[in-house]
Amino acid sequence: MSKIYSLLLCVLPLLVALSLPKCSRAQKSIAPRDLWCVAKNNAADQALQDAINWACGPGGANCGPIQQGGSCYDSSDIQRTASWAFNDYYLKNGLTDDACYFSNTAALTSLNPSFDKCKFPSSLSVNNGSISSPTGTIQMGPDSADLSSSNRVVGTWFLPLVTTGYLLVTFTWLIQWH
């Protein structure tokens, strides 16, 4: 019986350490890439308009470029208009999946949505709380944080917790039956 406990104490920490996600060990090898938050092409126009109204109002997105006379103004294309508002909000609010949701009318893409004179800043243009763009720098509020390298707890710790739980159940079963 004591041999099983000794084995458990030696093997369990090793297995947990090996099951830790790569991001906990070393993330230097992952190259960053440009991401943009854009309107989904299957989103209903009214849902997009409601999301634009929220993003440009209470959401605090800079919607000047999509106003009449702005470099991204296109009254005939609500997808482009929504994409600008969504992307600006996403860049200012931590680059998280939640900041690119808009009632399931938005999604992240690695395809640059810029067109004509309308240049969309990407996730890589966010640096220490500000967004660098060809037209200058857009400052984020002092209470904002650059969360571009943060990870979700579920994605980071799910596998080690499941692995540990499985091993504990297995070793408990072995101890009871042997």
TrEMBL record:
UniProt feature coiled coil, ranges: none
Task: List the SMART domains.
Answer: X8
Q: Where is the signal peptide?
A: 1-26
Membrane topology label: Lipid-anchor; GPI-anchor
Main location group: membrane
**One annotated Gene Ontology cellular component of this protein:** plasma membrane
Any idea where this protein resides?
A: Cell membrane
Keywords for this protein: Cell membrane, Disulfide bond, Glycoprotein, GPI-anchor, Lipoprotein, Membrane, Signal, Transmembrane, Transmembrane helix
Q: Which InterPro entries match?
A: X8 (IPR012946), X8_dom_prot (IPR044788)
List all membrane-crossing ranges.
157-175
Q: Which Gene3D superfamilies match?
A: 1.20.58.1040
Q: Where does the X8 domain lie?
A: 35-120
Q: What name does UniProt use for this protein? A: BETA-13 GLUCANASE
**Organism encoding this protein:** Salix koriyanagi
The organism that produces this protein has a lineage beginning with:
Eukaryota, Viridiplantae, Streptophyta, Embryophyta, Tracheophyta
